[in-house]
Predict the 3D structure of the following.
Amino acid sequence: MQDLERFVQLVLAGHKRSVARAISLVENEAPVKFPLLEALYPHAQKAYVLGITGSPGAGKSSLVDQLIAYLRSMSLRVGVLAVDPSSPYTGGALLGDRVRMIRHATDAGVYIRSMGTRGHLGGLSRASRDVLRILAAGGCDVILVETVGVGQSELDVMGIADTVAVVLHPGAGDVVQAFKAGIMEIADLYVVNKADLPGADKVVAEIREMLDVSKPHAPWRPPVVKTSSQEGSGIDALWQAALQHRDYLQRQGLWAARRREREAEEVMELARDLLVRDLTRRLRETAGSLPALREVREGLRDPYSAAREVAGRLLQQLEGRA
Amino acid sequence: MQDLERFVQLVLAGHKRSVARAISLVENEAPVKFPLLEALYPHAQKAYVLGITGSPGAGKSSLVDQLIAYLRSMSLRVGVLAVDPSSPYTGGALLGDRVRMIRHATDAGVYIRSMGTRGHLGGLSRASRDVLRILAAGGCDVILVETVGVGQSELDVMGIADTVAVVLHPGAGDVVQAFKAGIMEIADLYVVNKADLPGADKVVAEIREMLDVSKPHAPWRPPVVKTSSQEGSGIDALWQAALQHRDYLQRQGLWAARRREREAEEVMELARDLLVRDLTRRLRETAGSLPALREVREGLRDPYSAAREVAGRLLQQLEGRA
């Protein structure tokens, strides 16, 4: 990239195609990745990141769709990062089942990006941090991070959010399932969606009960809000609850502290990724010339001792002993 | 481990607690991991690995339960590796919802192991290969690898199987969903479970149609079998279809070829893991003494340039330039 500075200016100006291109460059591990993210980083600090997770079928996509409309009505710029660890696809165009959101795609103040698993060196949560910073630098005031399902990858991804909203709906076993899946530990607020269906109040009560039992003295008690994507109700309450949590973080000095603690962890992850990339390249160069790999391919040797030999050789080479 | 040789003998004799302990040692990345797996490897070649995957609710666990009983009735020793990427738990005792299988737990010819995601350095599919070899060395003739769900991790795990059975059931959109999720590319045979429910024949027809369209000239056409865990029917047909695929692999010379190709890939993964482990240790030692990490923690610096510095320093150190 010859003209990095000009490109950075375009991203900072919120130029939609440049933002999309920046994300693609970073996702593809282009050589410009590090310089680009270093240049954008100082401008990526203000966005508020709201994570939205919960079991499939809870209506998260509709909720996100309505949140976008709500935030746009206040003239806020909105980024959406839809993360699906079960999808191999990554990109701007492929929105999977998130068809509804497409109506916002032409809005100049809305940036939607979906993200699958394929080809993210350091994992999905690592990659999503980078994308988040690009969206923030592009001028998004709020970034909604939506995940499908409640697997470990989803929990990890939620580690990038300032506030995590867990969406449940009136359905047998839902609450208990969510609590079992480790969701409780990351929830800053609960959303009972499909509140027009019978049983919504029971779910609200169940959540409160769980909170009473498990977190009686926690400094932050997650609020529980009811929404109905069907009726379009409760979105304002959801947003107010999120802001409450944001205020709490800021009041307690946790806002910056949490972000910086994560960034320090990121340094180690990023450094490891850089080293792994470097070593993988060297490994490929080295392995071809070693008999170990050929021996495994011919069924003459176990992969474990071969790996020990290959790794040992590489370290020796690095240390100038070979 | 002072007496590796004696321990290896116990594992090879199929001593149940030793097999379990070997798995735990390997999962915990104990120093004995490599020597142990190197010793077991030559004895881990004969087991047939049947992968069983499909969307949640398809009744995979009941199916596995009945397969165990069926294989035991032929006096085959059976290993079961139940992989759940959404569960943080790993271990012998925690079988999650797989309660039914517990009835086999006391059978000396059945080895059941469940596996979650936590703490597997090289990922779940990497770790499951090691566990598979231990089960095989312990004398299992057949190893059933069951995954919940159909996410990317599940697809990766299925890469360790000789034959992959995809389980579907009569339910709206199931077939299309499965094909969308990339399941089709890994299926060697299809199982339509809950065949006692209405709509089973429609699912069978849909699968055949999909196969006609997508794989009209493939050298192996995946058979479609109907089972009913409720009625206990179809297990024999399922097993015969699996054996058909195994015979096909052997006839075409693919059996050993595929395994060796995977093992060669494994060498690179294992070598990378060894290097990453070594480097992570060195990184931790190095990072503390570098100002970069402190600067990030104090909000004075972006994580990207800090990571570049940390990684660069480490390589310099390795190369004896610092």
